[in-house]
Design a protein that fits this description.
The complex is a heterodimer of chains A (471) and B (484). Chain A has 471 residues and is of the alpha+beta class. Chain A folds into three domains: 92 residues, Uridine Diphospho-n-acetylenolpyruvylglucosamine Reductase, domain 2 (2-Layer Sandwich), CATH 3.30.43; 120 residues, Uridine Diphospho-n-acetylenolpyruvylglucosamine Reductase, domain 3 (2-Layer Sandwich), CATH 3.30.465; 191 residues, 3-Layer(aba) Sandwich (Vanillyl-alcohol Oxidase, Chain A, domain 3). In chain A, a hairpin with a 4-residue loop joins strand 5 and strand 6. The longest helix of chain A has 20 residues. Chain A is globular, with a radius of gyration of 22 Å. Chain B is of the alpha+beta class. Chain B is built from 17 helices and 18 strands. Chain B is globular and about 70 Å long. The chains are: A alpha+beta (471), B alpha+beta (484). At the A-B interface, strand 9, helix 8, strand 11, helix 9 and helix 11 of A face strand 9, helix 7, strand 11, helix 8 and helix 10 of B.
Amino acid sequence: MNSATQSPTRPQPEAVTALTARLRSEYGDRALTTHAIREQHSHGEGLADAAMPDIVVFPHTNDEVASIMRICHAARIPVIAFGVGTSLEGHVAALYGGVCLDLSQMNRVLEVNDADLDCRVQAGVTREQLNTELKGTGLFFPIDPGANATIGGMTSTRASGTNAVRYGTMRENVMGLTVVTADGRIMRTGNRARKSSAGYDLTRLLVGSEGTLGIITEIQLRLYGIPESISAAVCQFPDLKSAVDSVIVAMQLGIPVARIELLDDVQMDACIRYSQLTEFAAKPTLCFEFHGTEAGVREQAQMIESIATDHGGSAFQWATKPEERSRLWKARHNAYYAALALAPGKQGFATDACVPISRLTDCVLETQADVATTGLIAPIVGHVGDGNFHLVILFDPANLDERSKAEALAARVALRAIAMGGTCTGEHGIGVHKLDALRAEHGDAIALMQAIKRALDPLNLLNPGKTVPPV
Amino acid sequence: MLDPAFTSSLAQVLAPASLLTDAEDTRPYECDGLTLFRQQPGAVLLPDNEAQVVAILRLCHAAHVPVVARGAGTSLSGGALPAADGVVLSLAKLRRILAIDPLARTAIVEPGVRNLAISEAAAPYGLFYAPDPSSQIACSIGGNVAENAGGVHCLKYGLTVHNVRKVRAVTIEGDVVEFGSDALDSPGYDLLALINGSEGLLAVITQITVKLLAKPQYAQVALAAFDDLERAGAAVGAVIGAGIIPGGLEMMDQQATRAVEAFVHANYPLDAAAVLLIESDGTPVEVAAEMAEITHVLTASGATEIRVSQDETQRLLYWSGRKAAFPAVGRISPDYYCIDGTIPRAALPRVLRQIEDWSREFGLPCANVFHAGDGNLHPLILFDANKPGDKERTVEFGDRILQLCIDVGGTITGEHGVGIEKIGGMCAQFPPVVLERFLGIKRAFDAESLLNPGKGVPTLARCAEFGRMHVHHGELRHPELPRF
């Protein structure tokens, strides 16, 4: 048994040459080494710290993934799983070269079990594709990070989204996985029963492991019945504090809202311009969505509206027709791109603080004041029902001073959240950018995480340099 | 027997009354709710605080002494069965509710706090702790986390793992570690999920932050009778398939309703082959709307009679039989054996029919009382241990049911845990590649396997001895497997 974790190093060039030749002969035009392809697979979104893999392979089956993994294991070559490259924390950068496994062609919905409210999909299925394929079944999959990410990527980063407040995150909605282990064996975790006390919870361990413990190739997901009635409403506030306070009261009353999204005045301004939401003002805004029976939705909405009014909120502007709702939520999902459009040429850098709901107002207001001292443009947007909010910090990549200011701001946001009993990452994950913050937050548990990494990937071949700080 | 030098080192840490070594004092700790396995430990330790837990674990680690953590001792799988050469570490004295934060809707509690005591303490704030195993008046929250306990309300509100925010625990090396976060998510590997259901094999829990939920304003329960077991099973799928997630969805078959009626006099329809209890909770408006839909689905699924509780007394009366099912069955049969298999809901009709057929084949009555909405079966096989052959046939019957659960895509334990009882069944459910990962995780936390040794996860050697290296479609026959 190999007990020592190898520190990550670049593999020997000869080993890489031999491996790429072998993969190209086995996979033909599904194994590519062109510069353009490798560059495209060298980074996600967000801070573009790119590192190119030596080769990109597009497997189609579990067996192909296992076979590639076995070859890489034998040759000691790193392997990085890749969905559609929308992650924000540098998860997919091939820091030590190696093989990028692009799973986007494993994109079949394998089964839908309507009576059990679950389905099984390949890792490359995107969330929008899944919901399109579910049309007609009366079911839907609720988790919706802003990007049209793959289910595999969402599982690996334990993604969340706008309606986690009602439906949970990937943690609550992944029932089981097919995983290829570091030594190239295929294993299934979890099962289709709704609960199990047998053995350690490998499924949840793998969810959020960012490709460092195994390659996720299939996912069993929980589905939900499309609610009988859905309505969305927008409420605008005179200031940020009253908006956030309204959220806190609503959550404490336990009103089962499906979505509560906060946009500050800067973000609202960006969305109004980017998505032509001309009927709204550039003021702190909450967007709500209610799911349930018709009577239930009406009741929830009335309770929320009266809370908002007490806090100085405007009358609700309703979006009840599906096309009005999807226009609204599309604008919300495009908030990141809208923020980028505020300053063309600049890059966006998203923070991901998440605090206990009782500290949300403090955290958001202190953060807003902090932004003001930097002179940077950094709109606030958040899934505030979960205590989770993001800054999109805009900076000019060519301007080192601005970049370091942006990074310092992000670090302060993370530490502020941690100091308030929260976390530096509600949903984007650790990747490479948040390793220091993880250390600050999880001091004692890191040794255990490292030990688990060693147990499941003793040669440190799976996405090396990510998620868990080196020993 | 423990080394006297080790025992005296424990005496440096614990007051005399907290260190039990005489056989008559350790006798009450020789088993948990699974009484067929008994083993007296070398000593029973009753620390008062976390610092003592740390000191004890450091001593045990240094002296290579096995440690079995114990809560209220209500485990049904022998999770707290002592090791002969080890100590039982009872967390019973760590029973303070440290804080209730009605704004964050959390409670911070010590592991020895009873499950129900949390909801009682939260009640003045209109809050409650959702997971409610049947033993909730007695079982402790530390044990609930260790077993990832379920209960009637888990269908809607999740298992223990969904309702715990943060766990503070001590490793075998004596390091205090926090898993999870006060916020919704915690970065890095989900160690909190690993601790839930780890059966005392990874660390000793000393503090738990649980989520509290707003108590629903109103609840109603529908009691639906069916003249056919399979049809009742299909109705469960129909309710969920209609997108309704009730507060509870439980099933009792005729064997069970007859046993409990004599006990609680709830006026159950005794001629029905099966009864479903379906609860709706929320605001009165929501409950009314959901109940209308539930009634509609049940009628369409062939219910012969539907009663909806009209007030709280009636609601509790309908539930009383379900809650009292186990003791009621205990009254009609000298012995019973409770199985805890869980299956995908859609397989319910088929599995129930098969159990009924096997019950006839074995000549052993079987009462079904279970969390139908979760697909979590609890067949109670009735037998008489004094009748020659009964016990053996019961074991075989139970094995068949569990293998069927695995075959239809389910699991050998939904909420009771593996413990010592199902250690052999683990070899049937999981292939070596998975068992190796389990063992790797165990080693990452506890390289010498001192925490609750011999439970939860079988060694590969043990599986090989059983000849049970995941024979997937084979007959499950392993007479060596201890069941009682």
